[in-house]
Hints:
It contains 14 helices and 15 strands. Helix 3 (101-110) crosses helix 6 (169-183), helix 7 packs across helix 10 and helix 12 packs parallel to helix 13 (403-410). The model has no long low-confidence stretch (mean pLDDT 93). It is an alpha/beta fold.
Amino acid sequence: MLEGIDRLVKVIQKEGVFRSSEITGVQKERVKEAARRLPLNFYLHHKSLNISQGKVYFLIEQEKEKKLVSCVCGKVNHDEFIADETINIDGFSLKICPLTHENAMVIREVFSYTAPTVLGTEPAFGTGDRIGGEASATPGHIRAVRDYDVTAFFAQQSVRENARTKRTFHNVLDDVTWGVFQEGYKGRWGADADHLMDLASMGLAVDAGFTMFTVDPSHCINDAAPDMGRKELEREWAKLFRTRKEADNFLDKYLSLKEELVSGNYKLLIRYNEEQIMRIAVQYLRAIRFTIDAYAGIAQHKCDSDFDFEMSVDETSIATSALTHYLIARELNDAEVKLTSLAPRFDAGFEKGTDIRGNDGKKPLPADLRKFEDSVKSHALIARKMGPYKLSVHSGSDKFTAYPLISKYTEGMFHLKTAGTSYLEAVKVIAQHDSSL
């Protein structure tokens, strides 16, 4: 029983909301202040107030359960939301609707800002919300970013995280949709299906409505390649190609290459010898081919509509060299893969939820920081010249030493994934304020 809902509707009517083409912030604040004085047994999320085709929509919360209210002046409400309850009071028809997947699909149609969009090369933070449901962290993420000139991937989840939290891509996106509606956030935001390792998972993410796809081909990477002896290297190299001519053509393609990438006073020479080409190919060529196939599969599944696409090679034990990055980018370009971002493994210790470390796991020495700076500088330059696409930083939480360097050398073309700390902070808030969740 929603006590006082009739009075709340009268307040909304008095503030001229039903006559508005767009509800102003002033109107929302007035409704909020008036609602505080009413004997309500539910909480009004006033920022959610919005209007479409004469119907007013808002979120309420009662006993930790949130519901959507659809309100129209008249006896019958004909919108497409599925209601638990319909109420007719004083010339208004109200539908009280659960926050289901079906209703999330409808609200994304009614209010386009509640649906994710393709963000391209805009600077972005991937916050992610690994909990969702009653303990959704999305409203907090929105409040953290809304006053800054960045975009966010409020929906960011991997298949592995979905399995551990017993969620689906549909759950993840729907929870964010309701969080965006609750906060009345009208900025652009994205949905990143992270660490995708098979075509079936990619299809599930496409079907759920995700707009970014981060392919993780780590299962195709051969990290033994850098330490292989010559004979073993030649055997593994030969396995990559159907014919000797195909292998020779690949070698010639990069042996004949000499390119100098320049940014200001910084110059990066791209030049390969035979052994470098063979080792990079043995380590990464299968991963590159998997990524090309993944891109084609996603594009076909999306009927060639636009999407953000990332290749991640950070899930390896070996730092990504500039020559490796260039070869990967060149192969993807030649296959007409449109990269939005690429995540290398940086030459530094990147652990979740802590600042960067030296490769020995300890606090980085000045020499470690110089090495890391050179790594960021070269990767950012390659990303600009070969794309441009963004440099993606995984395990990006709390990397306060790294942030200034990433911002400086990428010139704002970065994607920082920070779901780890977002998750820890969400758990901390729950433990302190509502451990029953």
